[in-house]
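Hi U.,

Before I forget, here's the chain from the pilot set. I'm dumping it here mostly so it's searchable later in email.
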Amino acid sequence: MAAVLALALLAAACGEDDPIAAPTTAPVTTTTAPPTTTAADAPPTTTTTAAAEPEPGEAAADEPSTSAAKSDEGASGEILWSDVFDDSSASAQACIRESLEEEDLDAALARPVTSDDFPTDDDMSMLACIGPEHARDVVLSGLVRSMQTETGIMIGAEETACLRESMAGIDVIGMVESSDDLGAIALLGAFGRCLGDAFISLMLVDSGVEFEDLSDGEKACLRERQAGVDWDGFTGDPEASFEAFLELSFGMFECLPELGFDGVSSVEAPAGVDDDHANSSADATATRVGEATGGSLEYDGDVDFFVFDAVEGDFYELSVAPGTLEDPTVTLYDADGMWLDYNDDFAGALASRLHWLADGTGPLYVEVGGFGIGSYTLTVATAVVDDDHADWPAMATATAVGAATEGVLDHDDDVDFFVFDAVEGEFYELGVVPGTLEDPTITLHDADGLELDYDDDSGGSLAPRLYWRAASTGPLYVQVGGYGIGSYTLMVTR
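Structure:
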């Protein structure tokens, strides 16, 4: 059961496993403080039909337990349904007995709460009987205990309390029964927000690298990546949350270059299948800018690699039009196999598209994947975009403290960089006022490019704002991004 909770939840929210062939990760044992966690491979997102569930009204009114299990744990240390039964009220126990056939009761109660086939019809019936509040505690306790049992990772009281508080608004029964995307995404947000370094450790486990063995700089880089994710926002759009988490996952490769993606799919073509395009960057099909290239994903897990020659300063649009492959994806890598960008659905359609400004001349690799099999058409084209502000610090637009600077995000994935001269000890306020760009973001970097702070929405509005006291005199860089395109105004004051 030790698959990655986060990736499993995202797969459930998106309807399929992540088709990208980059390395996936699972929980890792760590001794750093605070205590860390991992995940169960049976996230509560499988659709089932409960068998003759009783009305949970009476049971729901019972006082919920503060602990899902107090005794009689299984040999593996996992929480059993018998523990939940013993910890339930008399009315909930009666409900469970009534819901399950007499001959099935003992077998059902002997099962771990988070078993490999969770949730069965019997599981759903018992959750309904104990009521929503107790059910939340049971599912959380089962996940945490399974994590600890299978990986040796212990979960601290503070982290558990944070998870329990964060899950208070999640309809666990509905999420488990109906594959509630929003509930699963909210659960992912709770783990990302509450577990701190443990969540990073969880993502690193299959890499062969342990968080505690990293340098201070590498740890700081990973923490900055994690801090840049709006975990509280993992309650709305599953697709946007998927994109944000995917960006965090691949951001590890920038913090830890030794983990660089090798450009090879882990799935091999079945015997007798003629794969039209290679599954590795080493054998990528050459494509030319301005030309359309057809392809097909012939089997589950198939990906196709292409390569084109990019020119420094040129702005490229990579698009994948669906054929019989209804939902394609596109991923861009540099010559060293480093992940650069990814897109699944663009502008509300299933066709994928991304834009990239080449910062060097040389080969760029394109991976086409998708949810399912079928044909598609890849097009790599140059796009003419009058970008008002540069996308990187080296060409940042100078702005003065106290001045208002206008800007426009001209295309999807566009960001604008600005620079101002900070004075040691001075306290600065940086804010972005939305124009036609409804939801901007702001990130502050030091002179070496290290991220110092980030904000998305501030004070209940979509206008981001952050405050920073300069530790030294010199340039500070401001990156304005956002969700969508449009105009904005940057303000730097003290």
